[in-house]
Amino acid sequence: MDERFDVAIVGAGPAGISAACMLADNGVKTIVFERGEYPGAKNIFGGVLYGHDLAQTVPDYVDKGFPIERNIVESRLWYLSQSGGYSVAYRDQAFFQARKFNAFTTGRARFDRWYAEQAKAKGAVLVCSTVVTDLLRGEGGQVIGVRTDRPEGDVFAKVVLLADGINSPLARKTGFRPEPKPEDVALAVKEVIALPEEVIDERFGVESDAGVTIEILGDVTWGMNGVAFIYTNKRSLSLGIGANLLDFSQQKVKPYEMLEAFKQHPMVAPLIKGGKPQEYTAHWLAEGGYDAIPRLAGDGFLLAGDSAMLFNALHREGTNLAMASGRMAAEAIMEALGSGDLSRNGLAGYVRRLQSSYVLKDMAKYRRFPHFLQDHKELFTTLPGLASLAAREMLTVNGIPKKAKQRTIWEAFRRKMSIRQSLRFVWDAWRSVR
Ligand SMILES: Cc1cc2nc3c(=O)[nH]c(=O)nc-3n(C[C@H](O)[C@H](O)[C@H](O)COP(=O)(O)OP(=O)(O)OC[C@H]3O[C@@H](n4cnc5c(N)ncnc54)[C@H](O)[C@@H]3O)c2cc1C
């Protein structure tokens, strides 16, 4: 390709397409490379997307037919032991009305495709089935374009945006992001289970365009630092489970076996009963938090989204951070193009924008959270059983006085955790989220 572009974007995920929308909207000559046959062809995620950041690039997304499965009106949190578990739920009328599409479920194959169409309509060039294999460097080492796997596939651009996701050899080639450490990455598996719409409505207590998310902690991850989820789509459920890669490698657990066991859990099995498995996928998640974020701007290039390790594990926010960082990268690129300074200094507006936005503020707030999970495995080992024992004892009506039950619970607790350990747990938990 002889043509020169202002900006070359690697990856047509939420980060890359958000940047492309904004750049193309402002007349910046932009090309997006996507290795999949079409955007979303190779992408998976749990399923929850957020309206706020989408509206910043496509304000009229509802009228433009964005592919929604269900509008999320209720969020549940489960803490499970082997035989049972706690459930906390929050449903609000606001999510049916004024805050509709605060969060909604969608499928990546449909959403990414639709989103990329919006960028194309604004004037961005999208090239699919093309892998960017390297970054082209100028004499001073600055990035001046990309090398693709097409014949004569070098494309020159004033700025390159790496929005190529968590598994990014290109980010490693910049020297900014080494191979992610196993403790900074989770491996998740997901299965989509088809069920009739009315069955989902009934089992989750919703009407057909409303949906529910369930985030699950406990010993479903077999003592490893991990999480599971169940999200409602229109005519299917997305079930997933994942754990820290370091834990997986140490415990020699097979993710699909853990998923199968999760599906048998007494609180999960009735929700998926009679369902037909449709697809099964596995993917990495960026879980290192703030401390795993690499340098974000170099001479002639920027990193956004998962490539920049932007993921808020506590709130299950990844796509919105990807969209917000893509947008802010686009703003900083336009500023740099205007000033003619495409060096790291000229592109530093990107980092400033991220720092003053919720993206890095939230990541910094929860900086200790990944360490808390990794250091306090009792959350996934002893505590689920103890928490269940407490509830089971107090709810069982068997003639034993409640004081005696309290004593049994307390003794069981003390056998597993010392006062010192318990205080450390509570203190670290508080510090990780304050
Ligand atoms: C199991 C799981 C569940 C999740 N659940 C949620 C959720 O419910 N809600 C949420 O907000 N987030 C969730 N996330 C996180 C979310 O998926 C990511 O944070 C988000 O997709 C990041 O967007 P991105 O654009 O940075 O990267 P990606 O979505 O990974 O997109 C990168 C794109 O780049 C392309 N690409 C990669 N390398 C190249 C190359 N060399 N050349 C050309 N193209 C390339 C890829 O094909 C892909 O299309 C989940 C993640 C996983 C794994």
Question: Which secondary structure elements does this structure contain, and how are they paired or packed?
Answer:
Elements: E1 4-10, H1 14-25, E2 30-33, E3 48-50, H2 51-57, E4 70-80, E5 85-91, E6 103-105, H3 108-122, E7 125-127, E8 132-137, E9 143-148, E10 154-162, H4 169-173, E11 185-194, H5 197-204, E12 210-218, E13 226-232, E14 236-244, H6 245-251, H7 255-264, H8 269-272, E15 276-286, E16 297-298, E17 301-303, H9 319-339, H10 349-356, H11 358-365, H12 369-375, H13 382-395, H14 402-416, H15 419-433
Parallel strand pairs: 1-2, 1-10, 2-7, 4-12, 10-17
Antiparallel strand pairs: 3-6, 4-5, 4-6, 8-9, 9-10, 11-14, 11-15, 12-13, 13-14, 16-17
Helix pairs in contact: 1-3, 1-9, 2-9, 9-10, 12-15, 13-14
The structure holds flavin-adenine dinucleotide (FAD).
Flavin-adenine dinucleotide binds at residues 10-16, 33-36, 39, 42-48, 131-132, 163-165, 170, 188, 190, 240, 242, 283, 285, 305-307, 311, 316-320, 322.
